[in-house]
Structures are given as C-alpha cells and as structure tokens.
Specification:
Layout lengths: L1 H5 L12 E5 L3 H13 L3 E5 L2 H7 L7 E5 L7 H10 L6 E5 L4 H9 L4 E4 L4 H29 L7 H10 L5 H8 L3 H15 L4 H11 L3
Parallel strand pairs: 1-2, 1-3, 3-4, 4-5
C-alpha cells in the first residue's frame, strides 16, 4: 500500500477543491475505487486507516472524505467523531459492505453527507461524491462571505461594541445611555461611528449584518 501512497503529491492537504480522500482497510477495494474516481476526473488520496488520515488532516482541509464504516482500530464512526472534535467541516460519505440502518441513521444525524453500500452502482457513487464536493464548495463560499462580513467589526472599539450590542437588542439611545452610564449624546456619536465603520444606514441593515456575520 506504500506504493499507492507515494504516487500522490506530497502537498495533498492543500490539493485542489475536487480532492477525494478515501479511507479503507480493504486494499483491493481501495485501489478499485481510486481508479474509478481518478478516471472520473477527481484527485484522489488513498489511505488504509483512519489513523493515517488523521495524521495528515489539517484545519480547513478541502474536498470530501469517503470512508469505510467497519475498519480495525478507529472505524468510520470514530473517525467522524474525531473530525468533528477537531472542528473539521469536511463532508463525509460512508461506504459499507453491509446495510446497517441504525448505524446509517446515527451517522446521518451526526452530519454524514451520504451513506452507500460498496455494491452501489458506479454512477450513484460518483453522484454522491459530486454532491459532497458541491457541499464543500458551498460551505467554503459561506465561510468566505462570513469572514468578509466580520472584517469591518474589527474596526470597532470596545465601547462601540457595547453600544452595538444594545442597538441590535432594539434599545433606544436613552436606554443605552442609562445602561452604560454615559451621556445620550455620546451614544449618538458611537452609533454614527458604528454605522460609518460598518457601512450601513439603518438599524435593520445593522441587525442583519450582525446576524449574518455571527458576531456578538
């Protein structure tokens, strides 16, 4: 299996968006699936254990993971748990030689992208991989959008953040002034600074921006 690994580029964690990471201890199946996906235009990284995958995994890894459910050592469900613990959002497609409905339900509840048997038609498998990669690209676009929304908030002072928190709660200037023990005129100045720095013109815009950016 070492030869299978050395054929891959050394920069695999930073490979293009359409990278498919396959984890399966069945070397024959691993090679067969790798050939199928490469022939379908995917960049493939083939690994024989969950431990091996975790040793190379990095935050922000792009692509999708196709993993066997039943493996010695860390199985597919344990791998999923470890990735979630690390904050990974990599979409996971489970493959199994046996249709296990309770396990399928559990995996899907924990965020699995899909669950197929190893005997699934090739077209179905490729469609599932495409779906997982599409979800990864969508999630990345959402992360980038949220990050761009969050950037202007770094310009706010601590006091402006305090005022902002009260504004989005729907409080009036005089209420904010009383809560923060400052003059109402000072509240107005802070609100002007906030809207200028964030580039908004109304409380509705401000509230929506705060919600979408996930700040406060």
């Amino acid at each position: 299996m070492a030869n299978e690994r050395t054929q891959m580029p050394t920069e695999t964690p930073h490979s293009p968006k359409r990278t498919v990471y396959i984890v399966d201890d069945d070397i024959s199946f691993l090679r067969s699936l790798s050939r199928l996906l490469r022939a379908s235009g995917f960049h493939v990284v083939a690994l024989t254990s969950a431990t091996e995958f975790l040793s190379m995994a990095e935050p922000g890894m792009r692509g999708c993971l196709v993993t066997d459910l039943m493996m010695p050592g860390l199985d597919g469900m344990a791998l999923q748990a470890e990735l979630q613990k690390a904050g990974s959002t990599l979409p996971i497609l489970f493959l199994t030689g046996h249709g296990d409905i309770p396990t399928t339900v559990q995996a899907m509840k924990r965020g699995a992208e899909n669950f197929l048997t190893k005997h699934a038609p090739k077209a179905e498998l490729i469609a599932a991989v495409n779906g997982a990669l599409a979800r990864d690209e969508q999630a990345q676009a959402e992360r980038e959008r949220r990050e761009s929304l969050r950037r202007p908030f770094a310009l706010l002072t601590d006091r402006e953040r305090e005022v902002l928190r009260q504004v989005v709660q729907g409080k009036l200037n005089k209420q904010i002034a009383a809560d923060l023990d400052i003059h109402e005129r000072t509240v107005k100045l802070h609100r002007t600074a906030i809207t200028t720095k964030l580039g908004v013109h109304s409380v509705a815009e401000l509230t929506r921006m705060v919600q979408e950016a996930g700040v406060l």
